[in-house]
Design goal:
The chain is an alpha/beta fold and about 280 residues long. It has helices spanning about 5-15, 20-30, 35-40, 50-60, 75, 80-90, 110-120, 130-140, 160-175, 185-195, 210-220, 240-245, 260-275; strands at about 60-65, 90-95, 100-105, 125-130, 155-160, 180, 200-205, 230-235, 250-255. A five-stranded parallel sheet has the order 6-5-7-8-9, with helices on both faces. It has a four-stranded mixed sheet with strand order 1-4-3-2. Helix 11 links the parallel strand 7 (about 200-205) and strand 8 (about 230-235). The longest helix is centred in the last third of the chain and has 18 residues, at about 260-275. The radius of gyration is 20 Å and the shape is globular.
Amino acid sequence: METRPKLGEIFVENGILTGKTVERMLLISKRVNKRFGTLLEELELVTSDELAVALATQHACRVASNFAGLTYSAELLATIPVEVAMQNYIFPLKLENNRLALAIADPTEMRVVRNLSVEKGLSITPYVATRKEIYEAICRNYLKKENRTLQGQTVLLVEADRQLGTTFADVLGRQGFRVIRVADGLEAYKAVLTEKPQAVVTDQDLPNLHENGFFDALRTTPELSLIPVILIAGPDGPEDEIMAFERGFFDFIQKPVQEATLVTRVKRALQFSQGNCRFN
């Protein structure tokens, strides 16, 4: 069985990183329990394009680029449900003679690709692409929205309770914030991709992607990982608050939510975001 080259070795061979840097970053990635390539990209030691090329080299794939601005047929897009495309950062590029060319951000996660091949009866050829280009293609073709540039102070409010959602949106709107309201985790993920909020306020109990699934989807994507997420939970005790901070939520608010508390926490999250947001 042929052994794949290690990602760090490829970066050293390409003159992007030194051997010493690779050693140190491998130790850090283990300590923080984060994928090596993801960590390098987050710390801007490698660019997204450099990471894509290295992953393609490692897995003997080709690189797909400059495809986000193109338009794709409804038949092609139907081969990959939008939920699957968003959650796994994959995008269909071409379908010909029962062979699907598929852009993927992470060629180490091939389970979804294999499942699609079996379910659709297709032979799939993977192409490595950057996460940024894939989500731009998803926004433009599936969600029918152009990828926006950073603007204003936008807060994404994820609340299934209509009355609470209206109340929270009114409170934040009076502070001059642009508030995007959604009612479930999947719609929240779509809104993050298309609206680019600088802060997220989410209830603990969400339909579709529950709050941890939604949060994990953000944290595993470098372009989204620094958005501060505030968790709202019921008045059941300190366990929820401990869990929230252990998982990495930016802040925690316990119900019943006080207007002043909501405004203060959101303002603090936006101040954090101004210095750390990575959208461009």
